[in-house]
Amino acid sequence: MWRRISWRLLKQELKRGELTIMAAAIVLSVTAVLSLSVFTERLQAGLTARSAEFLAADRVLSSRREVPTEWLQQAQQENLQYAHRVVFNSMAFAQDQLALIDVKAVSEGYPLRGELRIAEQPFGQDRIAEGLPGAGEAWVAAALFQELDLQLGDAIEVGNKQFTVTQVLSYEPDVGFSVFTDSPNVLIRYQELAETGLIQQGSRVRYNILYAGESDDLQRYQDWLLPQLSDATHSWRSVEDGDSPLARSLRRAERFMLLASLLGVVLAATAVAVAAQRYCQRNYDVVAIFKTLGASKPQIQAVFVTHLLLLTLFSIAVGMALGWLLQAAVIYFVAEYLGTTLPQAGWQPYVLAGGTGLVSAVMFTLYPLLRLVQIPPLRVLNRQLTGTDSLRWLHWLASGGTIFALLLLYSQQWLLSLALFVGGAIAAVVLLTVGRLFIRASRQAGMQAGSAWRLAMAGLQRRAQANSVQMLSFTTAIMLLLLVLALRDDLLADWQAQLPDDAPNYFVINIAPGDVDSLQQDFTERDIVSTDLYPIVPGRMTAVNGVPVIDEVTKEDDQSAQAQTQERREGFGRELSLTWRDSLPPNNTVIEGAWFDAQTGPQVSIESEVAERMRLNVGDVLEFNIGGNVFTTPVTSIREVEWGSLQPNFYMIFNSQTLADFPATYISSFRLEAERKNELFELFRPYPQVSLIDLDAIMMQLREVISQVSLAIGFVLVLVLIAGILVLLAQVQASMEEREKELVILRTLGAPAALLSRSVTYEFVILGAISGLIATLAMEAALYILQVQVFDMSASIHWRFWLLGPAAGAIVVGVMGRLACAQLIRRNTAQLIRGLA
Amino acid sequence: MLIQTTQLQKQVNTSEGILHILQPIDLQIAAGETVAIVGASGSGKSTLLSLLAGLDLASSGDVIIDNVKLSDLDEEQRAKLRADKVGFIFQSFLLIPSLTALENVMLPAELAGRKDAEQQARELLAKVGLAERLQHYPNQLSGGEQQRVAIARAFVGTPKILFADEPTGNLDSVTGNKVEDLLFEMNQASGTTLVMVTHDAELAQRCQRVLRMDGGQLTEETRDVA
Asked: Boundaries of each ABC3 transporter permease C-terminal domain copy (chain A) (predicted)?
């Protein structure tokens, strides 16, 4: 029976649009959650796949010794693909010349992610390589062609084995950004490695195993493997690790999306809460009539629970459909725009979205519904009766609990959820208090004003209690909007700064001191913008404060090495590129100590992450060995370096007098448009020993990733915006109902429509402006914490929002209020009076 | 007696002390009688009606309806009693805006679990002259039509008692007269006991008994029986 009655009520109420706000709020929360989570998941899968290309795998195990075969068997059992990659330095002989090279021996399947590109001539048009070099063949980096004056088909000797050079190695996905220490690569087959005879006891070799597979399988394997690894011998890497600009951008983007989505969900839930309250208030009379006509409480409960459930399910279905369409549209647009397709998402987002809709509808209507069934039947004779208010605590408990549950459900992070929740609760209390003070103050200011203002002020004051709650939701909505907007601007600006359109796309290394001037002159003649030239002196750091560091070259048996790790620092295990310079390079900031002063004597400035890893402080004395010359230098400053800046960056910078006398080569980076690529060969022909590193491919990938993320962020912003507007709308509508009676009385007493509409508009304008102002304050505070704590960015103040916040609040809330009021005034007075009777 | 009160009182606490809305009232209404309660605004006549109908609770004294003491019943049982034995007509009609005329009339019968709710509702709406407007919603009906729907709703399930609160108060006099005629006609046909609150003296005169409320005190107006 109640099902029939509920259905009848619902049908007509839907038709007449009485449930629009409630339905819209649920639809929106479901749409937002679904499209956001599907989109984020797909984007993330896409990004992870893309970033995996930088590793050439999903996970990489790096080892100083050969990896036990059972580890590989286990990988096979977990359905993982794997490939060997062995990397070491060696010499290559060709054309009676000798060159330092990096040998890279890889097994079938390499690269597991991303692609290898090869060309027929150095810096020529390249294509995707299918497979690996054949037996007895080697693919060689362009730089080595210059250095050894090679031609395709020439023989090159590596160790005991002779290889035929069959292709120019133009792009390796896993080449990374470490351009300073790498020699040109020679790619050979893993099976032929032994024949070179280069791997012997004590050789400095990196044995890498690349893995790829499903994330669950990878996780299981990782759980099995990690306990068996030793810190001294092994390292395990995934895409998220590391300090590549890409990994940082991704982490920030992920955090932003998560945060923005959370805020969107909270906003949508708030809209549901406001609408639910209103939904129940509208049904007070209906319940009273039902009771008068003899309906029992269980009957009424059944009717309204069914009613609400039907509405919720209907809205969830609509929301799901909309959400799916929306993300499909965005994905289509992304695909069009970027020329990539994104992987499909799983079923979790659908559960999450449906769950969010259901949970927020049920929890936020719990109290209003309880109150609804308590409505006394006597209300049919006395319209003032609204039942008991004693369960209000339950409302706060249910609403608070729900918001927290949603935060947790969505982020799956206790700490973040708790922080946001507690922060939000504190902010709410502060906002309520400040809001009330503001209203009181504005009342006094308004007493001197004209009559529409006076009415508005009187209204504000009379409804101070209701208004401060209203203001809370206006403020929250405006604040979250501003927050997402400002954060997005900052993130985008930050990325843009990292990868400006004129970012250098080539590194040139190994420039002889005698060539520095002429190369610079060549750059100028060809109108090529380059960075400063930095000298490079290869050297080892051998001791800290007199205690030698553990280094790979120091051959020790593992047990003693492990035992000593506690006291002794682990060295770099390789030569470092040391530089000298008297001025602080761009994109570097001194965070401890001071940059070199004029004082004589050796000084070194070290990069902050190295300092942290090696537990170095200002004042520590480092010992270096450069070509047999051993000397010590005190650390005088610690620098933070923008690694993403694509400029030559250094762990160690010395003052000039310390290093200037050592033999050095120079490094620089410059920008050359793709269409001028053919000039490279000409440009560098006079400098055969110079090596050139092409960053275009990597930068293109970075740009692609960043534009995908920016697009996603724009999308999130729009959704949050809609959610915010919905909250404002629901709140204005709800408060209009409270005003209805008063308006009718004033109207009946003959107040002109213009006066009423102006006074209501003013009231909303004041509310909106105050909310906007408080929102801006709160936004700045929240943003400061987020930027510093969550996003690793430098904090900034957003002056334009100080105007934008209050102005936007006043305009949007004012316009909404005026529209709602106009609707009310348009209905004739008799109709209104009857409605209130 | 169908309706009986003994020493029925209602008082409320206000900031200025206890306000006696109803002085002790003893009243008997027999089955089939038509009774008007008249009096000025604020005299307590609506309060009396709400107590008689079990919508509100008395401060002291008893209301006995069909041999059942209302004070012995909880809210649920009083609702059940209303569903079984009582019909209502209100000044502001109190139709449910999202239900059609037919659905509004069916509602009490459905709540009481009657199988023939729709059948009964159709017949009653035909009786009040709205056979053509079954699927109209309240906002598509005039005031008079809405009150006719309310009358049909009051009679569905053939209640023993009908409570009417200013049934013509929101209508113009011509429409009001028609609605009155209809009300009395249907009441007579079904033999229902009618208790009506009104300040319309003419309307009151159409009832067999007229009770006057004044300052919370009830007096019966004696008059010539024609």
From this structure: 259-377, 715-827
Q: How confident is the model at residue A559 (pLDDT cuts 50, 70, 90)?
A: very low
Instruction: Find, in chain A, the residue whose alpha carbon is nearest to that of B48.
Output: A381
* A307 touches B at CB < 8 Å: no
Task: State how many domains chain A has.
Answer: 4
- The pLDDT score that the predictor gives to residue A564 is 47
Q: Which of B49, B50, B98 sits opposite A12 (nearest CB)?
A: B98
A293 chain-B contacts, CB cut-off 8 A: 82-83, 88, 107-108, 111, 153
Q: Model-level pTM?
A: 0.65
What one-character DSSP code corresponds to residue A550? Answer: B
Are residue A95 and residue A203 in the same domain, yes or no?
Answer: yes
* CATH number for the domain that contains residue B104: 3.40.50.300
* A530 DSSP assignment: B
Distance CA(A182)–CA(A176), nearest Å, equals 10
Q: How many structural domains compose chain B?
A: 1
Contact B108 A291 (CB under 8 A): no
Expressed as residue numbers, the domain containing B209 is 33-44+80-221
Q: Is A169 on the interface with B (CB under 8 A)?
A: no
Shared domain check, A357 and A255: yes
Query: A717-743 burial by CB neighbour count: b if 16+ within 10 A, else e?
Result: bebbbbbbbbbbbbbbbbbbeebbeeb
Cα–Cα distance measured from residue A673 to residue A289, given in angstroms and rounded to the nearest whole number: 78
| Separation of CA A794 from chain center | 16
* CB contact B184 to A (< 8 Å): no
DSSP helix/strand/coil, A27: helix
Going residue by residue through chain B, which has 226 residues, state the pLDDT in tens, using 9 for 90 and above. 899 999 999 988 888 888 888 889 999 999 999 999 998 888 888 889 889 988 888 899 999 999 999 989 888 888 888 888 899 998 888 888 888 999 999 988 888 888 888 999 999 999 888 999 999 988 889 888 999 999 999 998 888 999 998 888 888 888 888 888 888 988 888 889 999 998 888 889 999 999 999 888 888 887 655 4
* DSSP 8-state secondary structure symbol assigned to residue A788: I
A49/A65 same-domain check: no
Scanning the structure block, which residue is given the tokens 């309307």? B203
Beta bridge partners of A580: A654
The interface predicted TM-score of the complex, written ipTM, equals 0.89
User: Which residue range forms the structural domain that includes residue A494?
Assistant: 432-501+696-837
Contact indicator for B182, B215 with CB cutoff of 8 Å: no
